[in-house]
Specification:
2 domains, 14 helices, Aspartate Aminotransferase, domain 2, alpha/beta, globular, seven-stranded mixed sheet, Aspartate Aminotransferase, domain 1, 406 residues
Length: 406
Amino acid sequence: MSFDVAAIRAQFPILDQQVHGRPLAYLDNAATTQKPSAVIQAIQAYYQRDNANVHRGVHALSERATAAYEAAREKVRALLNARSVREIVFVRGTTEAINLVAHSWGTARLRAGDEILITGMEHHSNIVPWQMLCERTGARLRVLPINDAGELCLDQLPTLLNERTRLVGVVHLSNALGTINPVAEIIRQAHAVGARVLVDGAQAAAHMAIDVQQLDCDFYATSAHKMYGPTGIGVLYAKEALLDEMPPYQGGGDMIRVVTFERTEYNELPYKFEAGTPNIAGAIGFGAAIDWLGSFDMCEIAAHEQRLLQEAVSRAKAIPGLRLVGEAGHRATVLSFTMEGIHPHDLGTILDREGVAIRAGHHCAMPVMQRFGVPATVRASFALYNTSDDLDALFQALERAQAMFA
């Protein structure tokens, strides 16, 4: 499919509307992306034609649902270039994936005196589960800081990594700053001291090609709703050997092979980690989103989004009183800023009245806000369906806001 932004936008019904009497300029894609008709139709078709539980029925509807569900798993495997579908565990999203690793792998592996290393730009979902794990086990949480540009202080990494480091948690693309981290190099250094690495890929998967074998990460987590798929479905990739060793995260149906009152024999991978009725429609929608996204060249998507970001940065720097938060040399999709004399929440409300949807707040990254000395930022985040018209709407609204507070 050729990269025609007008044709792409036509596939998103939600974008063809007015908000407060103005055309919608949707710039909150780091929170969630909108869904193309292909995804909406795939979910609708499942409920209209194939609605049944998976893996358990012998009737036609269950067989069709199971086939579609497992086909989606294979699509995720191919997207991430995992070795086997046994390494692909469906979860509710990135947050649950990280919690699964913390509870299952972490509780079994960590002891008092062990260390977990994360970075100063992590989402709360890649902070809090590790804090909870440290409380349970007596392990210590350490943090790789970030500099004034919003980049990791990689020169400090060799000092923080040591023989006590059991796991490194690092975000691939920061939701608050847009920084793209050199995860391959971090993984290499972590493995050199025997540590495992979990990569939070929630923001990355819609904007760049991911190859878990090339990265050699131990765990990779991402969510469908940030890559044009439905909410409530995501994936944990983990190396098969690790999943084999890990105890189940939850107990119940479908994660078992045999149950007696004396003992339970667990199911094979990946079902050992998928207790209960899964989000079948969500998985099918996820598969449809992967198909849809795969119809474009990822390099063209990245180039389009990078042009928007560079235009936005240039226009932002021309506004007196606007402070960019995060100016990493390698970044994507996110413009985070504050404006002198206007609280980000007030600015968000004003922009909404102008039809511009952005995010104002701490973006579930409070330590980032503390690092830059601000309570919150305004965040505009871009996707492949955004255009220069959306930027026009954003910056015209910012000018009106400044005039109101002058």
